[in-house]
């Protein structure tokens, strides 16, 4: 028989199932709350519609339970579901409206979306609107109180240019809407305030960004105050995204595990469970687990390195030649495509670890550059606590887990980012583009 958490009242109305508002009391010991609530937000109102349905099926299968690690029983009898992890999903697909589900013991129990907001009944949702994310996630936090929260955002991504595209935003024109970086920051701030009201924490425990190109320093700088651990990819992702069954199983197997261990298990599953073999750098799978509380340690050495590099550009033709060689040696990821019906301006991102290795090699006789590069490498190791990637058949890659904008067609938009306004890296980018060019790699 289902064991109900005392803080949440469920009701069955014929075949419908609804969550009633929690009776959580601020004076209550939070240790009595369930360990985790997993809040999943799937932006599939685009060309990912089919894959969104696959993600839902994977969650459904994982919800059947997990194997007991200690039971000395035949495998068929070791399947024991846990109710210390609850999962709620809002999926926006190509059909009209949105779909709200709770994952319960092998079922996707569909709930009325108007339980979240009465105005959502028969309404086309817009996942590119921060208020949609805020309304759903805050509702989930308050109605499924927990000691810890996962917020998983799945959809298209463009790095610093945004994520969670919606092809039909519900407006008269039905245009494409994208959740911009400032909107993502706004949404996470509101969600964290809801979490603080429930369990007193001032950060999301694990934030999953299941979208392309989101493991950027620029992205993480904007959201650094709102999550503890972030899982994200430097590169383009597989169309079906993460293995959602394994994501949920990472919590179900042992909800008492520390958050970084659970996040690392998810990162490993993304790389290890795929049979896809990459043919070039642009389509390898990458993923990193990032400790956002340590991100500030990157900023000073990165700014100092940027200023040192900027001054080196004016040194001699030999210095310019070295920078071209660094460019060639640095593994980079490029965003330039039509994504979900929208043209995306050219944007190239250095892998930060690869860039630092190349700098140390080509500027090994420049003490100032070498010293700053080494300091930044040490800081990077504190921020990226787990990094996984596929290798190419012809060579082993050495990636650092984070990317950084190096050049692109939208410098005016880039310089308005909080990171660009607060770190001298943008000054280096300007100097680099004016010296080496900005529309393509000048060193081959």
Structure description:
This protein is α+β, with helices and mostly antiparallel strands and 444 residues long. Residues 1-25, 66-81 and 440-444 have low confidence and may be disordered. It folds into two domains: 10-294, Rossmann fold (3-Layer(aba) Sandwich), CATH 3.40.50; 297-383 and 390-436, no CATH class. It starts with 9 loop residues before the first strand and ends in an 8-residue tail after the last helix. It has helices at residues 49-62, 130-143, 181-199, 217-223, 244-252, 259-272, 299-313, 317-329, 352-362, 367-383, 411-414, 418-422, 425-436, and strands at residues 10-13, 16-19, 36-43, 66-67, 79-80, 85-92, 98-104, 107-111, 148-154, 163-166, 177-179, 204-210, 227-232, 286-291, 332-335, 338-339, 342-343, 347-351, 384-389, 403-408. Strand 7 (98-104) and strand 8 (107-111) form a beta hairpin.
Total number of helices: 13
Distance from first to last alpha carbon: 65 Å
Pick out the low-confidence regions. 1-25, 66-81, 440-444
CATH fold label of the largest domain? Rossmann fold
The structure class reads alpha+beta
Instruction: Please indicate the count of domains.
Output: 2
**What would you say the CATH architecture of the largest domain is?**
3-Layer(aba) Sandwich
Mean pLDDT over the full residue set: 86
Q: Outline, from the CA principal axes?
A: globular
User: Which sequence of strands runs across the widest sheet?
Assistant: 8-7-6-3-9-12-13-14-19
Reading off the top of the CATH hierarchy, the class of the largest domain is best stated as Alpha Beta
The rounded Rg comes to 23 Å
The strand count comes to: 20
Name the beta content range.
15-25%
Biggest sheet statistics: 9 strands, mixed
Task: Summarize the amount of helix as a percent range.
Answer: 25-40%
């Amino acid at each position: 028989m289902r064991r109900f958490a005392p803080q949440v009242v469920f009701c069955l109305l014929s075949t419908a199932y609804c969550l009633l508002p929690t009776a959580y009391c601020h004076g209550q010991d939070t240790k009595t709350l369930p360990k985790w609530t997993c809040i999943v937000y799937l932006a599939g109102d685009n060309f990912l519609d089919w894959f969104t349905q696959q993600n839902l099926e994977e969650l459904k299968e994982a919800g059947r339970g997990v194997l007991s690690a200690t039971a000395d029983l035949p495998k068929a009898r070791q399947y024991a579901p846990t109710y210390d992890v609850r999962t709620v999903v809002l999926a926006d697909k190509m059909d009209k409206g949105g779909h709200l589900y709770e994952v319960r013991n092998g079922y996707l129990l569909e709930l009325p979306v108007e339980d979240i907001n009465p105005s959502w009944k028969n309404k086309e949702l817009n996942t590119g609107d921060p208020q949609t994310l805020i309304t759903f996630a805050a509702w989930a936090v308050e109605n499924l109180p927990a000691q810890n929260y996962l917020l998983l955002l799945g959809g298209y991504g463009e790095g610093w240019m945004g994520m969670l595209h919606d092809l039909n935003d519900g407006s008269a024109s039905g245009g494409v809407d994208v959740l911009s970086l400032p909107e993502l920051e706004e949404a996470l701030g509101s969600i964290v305030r809801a979490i603080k009201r429930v369990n007193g924490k001032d950060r999301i425990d694990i934030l999953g960004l299941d979208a392309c190109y989101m493991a950027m320093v620029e992205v993480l700088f904007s959201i650094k105050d709102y999550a503890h651990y972030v899982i994200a990819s430097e590169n383009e992702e597989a169309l079906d995204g993460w293995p959602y069954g394994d994501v949920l199983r990472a919590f179900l197997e042992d909800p008492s595990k520390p958050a970084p261990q659970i996040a690392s298990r998810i990162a490993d599953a993304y790389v290890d469970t795929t049979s896809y073999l990459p043919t070039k750098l642009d389509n390898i799978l990458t993923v990193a687990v990032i400790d956002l509380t340590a991100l500030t340690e990157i900023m000073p050495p990165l700014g100092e390195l940027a200023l040192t590099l900027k001054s080196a550009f004016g040194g001699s033709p030999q210095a310019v030649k070295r920078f071209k060689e660094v460019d060639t040696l640095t593994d980079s990821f490029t965003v330039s495509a039509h994504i979900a019906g929208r043209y995306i301006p050219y944007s190239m991102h250095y892998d930060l670890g690869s860039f630092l290795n190349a700098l140390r090699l080509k500027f090994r006789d420049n003490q100032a550059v070498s010293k700053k590069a080494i300091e930044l490498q040490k800081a990077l190791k504190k921020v990226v606590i787990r990094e996984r990637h596929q290798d190419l058949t012809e060579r082993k890659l050495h990636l650092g887990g984070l990317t950084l904008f190096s050049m692109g067609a939208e410098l005016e938009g880039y310089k308005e980012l909080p990171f660009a306004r607060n770190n001298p890296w943008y000054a280096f980018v300007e100097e680099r583009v004016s010296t080496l060019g900005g529309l393509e790699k000048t060193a081959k």
